[in-house]
Write a structure and sequence with these properties.
single chain; mainly alpha; 6 helices; 44% helix
Amino acid sequence: MTAPLTPPPPPRDQSSNQAWRPPGAGHTASAPDPYGGPGPHGSPDAYGISGSYGQDGPGMKTEVREAAVVGVLVALGGALLGVLWWWLAPSVPLVGDVVGKSWVVYFKETEGEQAIGVDGTFTLLALAFGLVSAVAVFLWRRRGGVPLVVALAVGGFLGSLLAWRVGVWLGPTGDVIAHAKDVGRGVTFSAPLKLGAKGAWLAWPLAALMVHLGLTGLFGPREVDPYQQHPQGQPQQGPYGPPPA
C-alpha cells in the first residue's frame, strides 16, 4: 500500500510588480555618484566637498609669482641701504708718509674704533631694513607661505650684497697709496669703506625671517578646527539631519 502523493505547491503569483527588471531599473537617477556626481540631496559642493583637484596648481603659481616680485623689490632696497651706510658710517683716518723712496700708509689713531663703527653701522641698518621689509610683506600678504618667506630671505641677502657694493663704490677710492700721494705727506684722509665682519650680510635676512614668522604666528589667519565647532555633549548634524535620539 503506497502513501498518497503530496500535491505540488501552488504556483507563485507572477504579477507585473515582481516581473524581472533589467539591472539599474530599480534605481532612481538621483543615486549618489561615487566619483563626485550629484546625489539625492544635491551636489557634493553643498557639503563643502569640492570635486576639483586642480586648485593647488594655480595657487602655487600665484604664490611663486608674488614671491619673485617680493624678492626683486627687497633686493633693490639694498641700494638705499648702501647709500645710508656710506652717509652714516664713521670715517677711518689714514696718514701717508715716505719711508726711503716708497710711500707707506698707516692709521692715524692706532686705537681708534672707527673700523668697528663701520661694521656696526651696516649691521644696525641691515636689521632695520629687515624689520621694515618683513612688516611690509606681511601687510601685503598676511597668509604668508613658504615661497614668500624664501623670497624674503633671499632678497634680504642679495640686498645686503648690493648695499655693500654701493657703499664701497660711493666711498673713498681703494687705492690708498695714490690717495696719499694726491693729498700729500702727513695729510689725513679717509680710508675706503670696508666691511670687516662679513657676517653682517646675514643681518637683513635673519631679521626679516624672524619678524615675518612672528607676525604670521601672532596675527596671521588661522584655520578653524572642525572639532571645536561642536562642543562635547551637543550632537553633530550630518548631511541627513541630526542623529536619532
